[in-house]
Amino acid sequence: MLYLRGLSTGDFSEALKALLGPAAAGFSSTTITHLLKMWQDEYRVWRKRSLESRDYVYIWADGVYFNVRLEQDRLACLVIIGVLPDGRKVIIAIEDGYRESTESWASLLRDLKRRGMPAPVLAIGDGALGFWSALREVYPQTQEQRCWKRSHRQRTG
Predict the structure, then answer these.
(1) How far apart are CA 101 and CA 105, in angstroms?
(2) Is the N end or the C end of the chain the one with fewer CB atoms within 10 Å?
(3) Does the predicted model carry a pTM greater than 0.85?
């Protein structure tokens, strides 16, 4: 979000107001650098956390694209949200991926498995074939379901 809101240009005021409230607009560059490092460190710890104690009944997977091109290739933000047996939704992963390639999804799913995530009963996603191929490779026992809402929207225009 910070990149999309001006991090690359050094104009942090809008992004910081959105994240921390109106009082954040006057932060110094030193404070901003410190916050950015702290958030990056927290993200690194979060994306390496153990997933052994979580039993996700089902997961949603989707690639989110932004109107930002770092180079010629288009990056996707690969997102997986899990649902626990009590119905709570939890963000499991947010990672950069090359488009929505099979290898990008497989790398993400292998990492989740390595960190102890058991196979979910059901995976829900759109028609991006890369995810389905990767899921069959990493969690072959997981049932598949196409996202009904998206599929319906595409048919009705």
Answers:
(1) 6
(2) C
(3) no
